[in-house]
Every structure is written in structure tokens, then in C-alpha cells.
Design a protein that fits this description.
Layout: E1 3-6, E2 15-18, H1 29-34, E3 41-42, H2 64-77, E4 81-86, H3 88-99, E5 104-110, H4 123-145, H5 149-160, H6 164-167, H7 170-178, H8 180-191, E6 207-212, H9 217-229, E7 233-238, H10 245-248, H11 250-265, E8 275-278
Helix pairs in contact: 2-3, 4-5, 4-8
Length: about 280
């Protein structure tokens, strides 16, 4: 018997991958390597991050300011895409899907940072929101005063674990302090959203929510709210992984991402990945 595997992405929809706050499109390099020859990965730098960053749509409010240039990137590809996002990037991806669902073939979200959903929720939801709002206020105050270090320390330690900032070399701390203002802007755009979970019921594309079981409670709560609202959403729970797993443990996260995209792209009975043969 001969098994034939196709390493050719000509007939597969491309993938748009959106990074988290305080990161850049390079965080998806491992995913690009993992799917090389099968899918094309486009990982733009979101507004404010790195060289060739997308230009925000200044006339748009909330997450739409970052979502609109992503939509322009998709339109330039002239076909629907598999859309992927992590944290703030997942919030932007969700906004893209809400604005232009016709452009999205599948949606994959790792712990979307859409924390406004908790602002008027249960007492526990409101407490979680107050906690993340406190980090934002520390960031904003430090950025405004010219001393962003306390805010960035609080931000990185919250998402990566206590002591993260103190273990960083000075060169990396300086880089993070330089983008503190953009992290503040990311928070402000996300907090400006005011839609409820009911708005997500109109999303009809295959959707995968990914959640680390070691992630902060607020990230888990926001993820489960989205999962409960999107009609065709699956939820993958990842033991031992935290909020930054797409960066720190891509070998575990990417398998889930690829499975979801490939399953959406081709039904099992149609799978034929040529160019590699084994008798």
C-alpha cells in the first residue's frame, strides 16, 4: 500500500495570524514552519508594533481601529481566510469576524482579550474586570508620567507569572518600556467595546477556542463566554499551559490550530496531501 501526502498549499485558503499585545507577527514563526508547504501564513504586525505595522483606522472606534486594516489585508488576498488570534490579537480577530463574516473560513482564538464582557456581569465577573482595569490604570499612569516600568512589570507578571519582569535582561525591559503606550492603546480599544455575548450568535464559521488551564481566571472566563455564545464553537482545554502558551509552548498549541484549520479546509474523505510517499 502506498500513502501519498500532498505538500502543496495552492488550493488551501491562507491563514491570517494576529499576535498578542507587546508582541509582533514573529510570534507565529514556528507555526509558519509547522505548516510550510501546506498553508500560507500571513502574520502582520498589528498597529504600533514593529516594522511595517498596519496603520490603524483612526476614524473607527474600539477594536475596529485595528480590525479594519486586517480586513484590508484579507481583501488584498482576494479570498476568504482562516483567521487566528492570540489574546489582544484574538479580540481583534473576533471583531474582524463580526464586521466581515463573509471573509472568514474558520476562526481560531486563544484566550481572546474581550474583557468588557465581564464589566457588568456577576459580582465575580466585575471583580475580575476591576483587577485587569487596575493593571491598565497603572500602565496608563506610568506611560503618561514617563515612567512605564511599574505598569509593564505589572502587565508582564500578570500574564507570564510573578517575577517575569525581574528575570528579564535590561535590553528586553527597555524594549517593553518603549511599547508601553501601545499596550495602553490596546486596552483602551478593547475596553471601548460595548456589545454583549448575544452579538456573537450571528457568527456561523467553524470556531475553535483554546484555553490554558494555568491561565489567569479572567482569560478563562472571557474564553468560556465566547465559547458559550458562538454557535459552532469548540473549546480545547490545554493542561499545564498558560496565557502565553502560543509563544512559550507552540509545539502543543500549533497542533490544535493546524487540526482545526485542516479539518475545516478539507473533509476527511477528501484529504490527499501529495508529494511525500511511503509504501
Amino acid at each position: 500500500m502506498t500513502v501519498t501526502m500532498m505538500r502543496n498549499d495552492r488550493d488551501n485558503a491562507p491563514v491570517i495570524a494576529l499576535h498578542s499585545s507587546a508582541s509582533n507577527g514573529g510570534q507565529w514563526n514556528r507555526l509558519s514552519s509547522d505548516v510550510e508547504g501546506r498553508f500560507r501564513i500571513h502574520a502582520p504586525n498589528l498597529p504600533g508594533y514593529g516594522a511595517n505595522a498596519l496603520t490603524p483606522e483612526q476614524s473607527a472606534g474600539g477594536l475596529a481601529a485595528a480590525a479594519m486594516p486586517v480586513i484590508a489585508e484579507i481583501l488584498a488576498l482576494q479570498q476568504p481566510v482562516h483567521l487566528l488570534g492570540h489574546s489582544n490579537g484574538a479580540g481583534v480577530a473576533l471583531k474582524v469576524a463580526m464586521l466581515r463574516p463573509d471573509l472568514i473560513k474558520s476562526l481560531t482564538l486563544y484566550e481572546p482579550a474581550i474583557f468588557h464582557l465581564l464589566r457588568d456581569g456577576s459580582p465575580n465577573d466585575r471583580s475580575l474586570f476591576a483587577g485587569i482595569e487596575g493593571i491598565y490604570r497603572t500602565l496608563a499612569a506610568g506611560s503618561a508620567s514617563g515612567d512605564p516600568e511599574p505598569g509593564m512589570q505589572a502587565f508582564l507578571d500578570f500574564w507570564n507569572g510573578a517575577g517575569t519582569w525581574s528575570r528579564l535582561p535590561d535590553r528586553q525591559r527597555q524594549k517593553y518600556k518603549q511599547i508601553a503606550g501601545q499596550v495602553v492603546t490596546d486596552f483602551e480599544r478593547a475596553f471601548a467595546e460595548d456589545w454583549g455575548p448575544d452579538r456573537l450568535q450571528a457568527l456561523d464559521m467553524p470556531t475553535l477556542l483554546l484555553m490554558g488551564l494555568e491561565s489567569p481566571e479572567i482569560a478563562q472566563r472571557a474564553t468560556t463566554l465566547v465559547h458559550g455564545a458562538v454557535p459552532r464553537a469548540d473549546l480545547a482545554l490545554l493542561p499545564g499551559l498558560g496565557h502565553m502558551a502560543p509563544v512559550t509552548d507552540p509545539e502543543w498549541v500549533n497542533l490544535r490550530i493546524i487540526h482545526h484549520i485542516a479539518k475545516t479546509e478539507r473533509a476527511a474523505q477528501e484529504c490527499r496531501w501529495s508529494l511525500q510517499s511511503a509504501a
